[in-house]
Amino acid sequence: MGVLERTRFTALSGMQVTLLIATLAVYAALGALDVAVTHAVWLTAAIVLLLAGLVASFTRPSDGRRAAWTLGVLLADIAAITMMRTGMLDSISTISLFAVLPIVWLAGGFPRWGALLGIGSAVLLGVVPRAITGEWVTGRVELLQESLPTVALVILAIATNVGAQAFQRQRDLLDATLAAKATAADDAADRSALSRSIIDSLDLGIAVFAPDGTLRTANAAAHRFAELEGIRLATPRIRAETVPVFQSDRHTLLPDDERVILAAAAGVERTTRTVWVGGPGNQVALSKSSRHVVRSDGEMMGTMLVTREVTEEERSRQMRHDFLAAVSHELRTPLTPLLGHLDLLADDLAGDPRSRRLDVLHRNLERLSDRMDEIAAASEVEPQPVLQPADLAALVTVAVARRSAAASRRRIAIAVDGPTSLTLRADGARLTRAVDALIGNAIKFSPDGSTVVVTLRGDADAVELRVSDTGPGIPADEEHLLFEPFMRGRYAHENAIGGFGLGLTQAMGTVRSHHGELRVHSPDDTGTVAVLRLPR
Questions:
Q1: Do residues 98 and 22 touch, judged by C-beta distance below 8 A?
Q2: How open is the CA angle 179-183-298, to the nearest 5 degrees?
């Protein structure tokens, strides 16, 4: 039996004791006042019935019988009070008011049909004693006085039942609300546990710091990566046992104030960077970044630290770099003297018809030299640009001069439109290669005798380079592959246009490292427009 049920039966027992004491008190008062009781047997029977109800109220029935048991005790109380009124009809006819407690319990404790029980009990209290004794009232005043207690009990039963039903509805609503909240809480707990399990199973380290720098949450991988640096996520700071961290070259120490883990704890965002942790021979490469976590209303919840081990990736990148560098060197070493001797032969055979054969050799060797340049560019590891003052107009001039010979052989003009100086902060060497790749692509895919237009523009925030040609354009099904390494379209294959398909890939890498934008598209399915935009 629950606490609520025990409380109800305790209250029921208390009511029985109250009714019994009140009845005995009335009986004693009548005796003290020498008031005659014409039907004493009914009063005695009432006391016996109340005693039986008291005993029954202390009994604890099984779960399925509690409601019926309580109803039986209450109806016994009504019967006892009816007997009391029958015995005291000539002396205290208003004794029926003793039925207030059981009628209230009936009407309130059984909301569905308690009103009928209460009304029926009130009416029986008024009618049954008169019917038993045969003493009916005849006068209007007496009838009114006789009816008032009954009417009062009926009203009380109705009001109590209405209130009980309203209370039951509110309770049902509250129970439904609490059940829904409990279900939602369980679902949220399940989702949280599932999310935690998924996050903990990842090799990706995720930690979130509150705005005040305290650690809110972190998965196992985040703790493991922090321990590689000798730093505890709960109290991130430099200690004596802190492991040295090197920049991407694996030799230059990373300043403490540039450690991403400390920046995240301080609420500072850091772009993704690769660092090497540990001494020579035992280094681990980690890719780290930090970013703010913001609610939908714009309020910052904290800063998230994301760490990923990239040791194998970096070693593969280094192997690729070493291989391409070796290939480029071995092929360029004999190529340079070949080009030099061809120039000397061209001078010796000036005006000789055989010099045209030298022109063929020279063009193909230059083509091979361009491929070597692409391989050399692909072999370079440039994780971070070195930003210095640069002039985009001057870089365009260099690229145009380098491509002018190839363009003139096909009678392609290069028109440059824009200011003579357009400064920005950039990595000049990398940006030169990107500009050269865009202009070189335009020349390769332009028809003979056409014009490549290079347009320069700038404002207070950014500079823009636009390279336009009148070539075949880019098929719609190839646009999403433009910046993939070694991507060469159908037109390049069908027309034997040389190249490894690395130019746009490297140009996009340069633009992204400068936090810029590069778009290549074909307006109206004719020609190609490449737009490079960089912050100043």
A1: yes
A2: 115
Q: CB 68: neighbour CB atoms within 10 A?
A: 10
Q: Rounded distance, CA 427 to CA 510, Å?
A: 9
Q: What is the C-alpha to C-alpha distance for residues 96 and 176, in angstroms, rounded to an integer? A: 40
Structure tokens that stand for 374 in this block: 């692409």
Coil, strand, or helix at residue 195? Answer: helix
Helix, strand or coil for residue 173?
A: helix
The CATH code of domain 385-535 reads 3.30.565.10
User: Largest Cα–Cα distance of the chain, in whole Å?
Assistant: 161
On the CB side of 254, how many CA atoms lie within 13 Å of its CA? 26
User: Where are the domains positioned within the chain?
Assistant: 3-176, 205-309, 314-381, 385-535
Question: Do 385-535 and 314-381 have the same topology in CATH?
Answer: no
pTM, full prediction: 0.48
pLDDT tens digits for 210-239? 999 999 999 989 999 998 888 889 888 877
Q: What is the pLDDT of residues 381-428, one digit of tens each?
A: 555 677 889 999 999 999 999 888 889 888 999 999 999 999 999 988
pLDDT digits (tens, 9 = 90+) for 20-40: 888 888 878 877 777 666 667
**How many CB atoms lie under 10 A from the CB of residue 49?**
20
Between the two ends of the chain, the Cα-to-Cα distance in Å is: 78
- Cα 64 from Cα 6, distance rounded (Å): 15
Give the percent of the chain with pLDDT over 90.
Answer: 23
Evaluate if residue 318 carries a pLDDT over 80: no
| Token representation of residue 354 | 């055989």
CB 504 within 8 A of CB 520: yes
Domain 314-381 belongs to what topology?
Answer: Helix Hairpins (1.10.287)
Long-range CB pairs of 404-410, under 8 A, 24+ apart, other chains included:
405/366, 406/366, 406/440, 406/443, 407/443, 407/452, 409/363, 410/443, 410/446, 410/448, 410/449
- Give CA–CA dist 252/351, Å, rounded: 57
Backbone angles phi, psi at 226, to 5 degrees: -65, -35
Class of domain 205-309: alpha beta
Write out pLDDT tens, residues 156-209.
Answer: 888 888 888 888 889 889 989 999 999 899 888 888 888 778 877 888 999 999
Strand partners of residue 519: 531
User: CB 347: neighbour CB atoms within 10 A?
Assistant: 9
Q: Alpha-carbon distance 484 to 290, whole Å?
A: 27
Could you tell me the pLDDT band of residue 356, with boundaries at 50, 70 and 90? confident
Closest by Cα among 129, 85, 123, 83 to 103: 123
Give the span between the Cα atoms of 498 and 403, in whole angstroms: 15
Q: Specify the higher pLDDT residue, 462 or 368.
A: 462
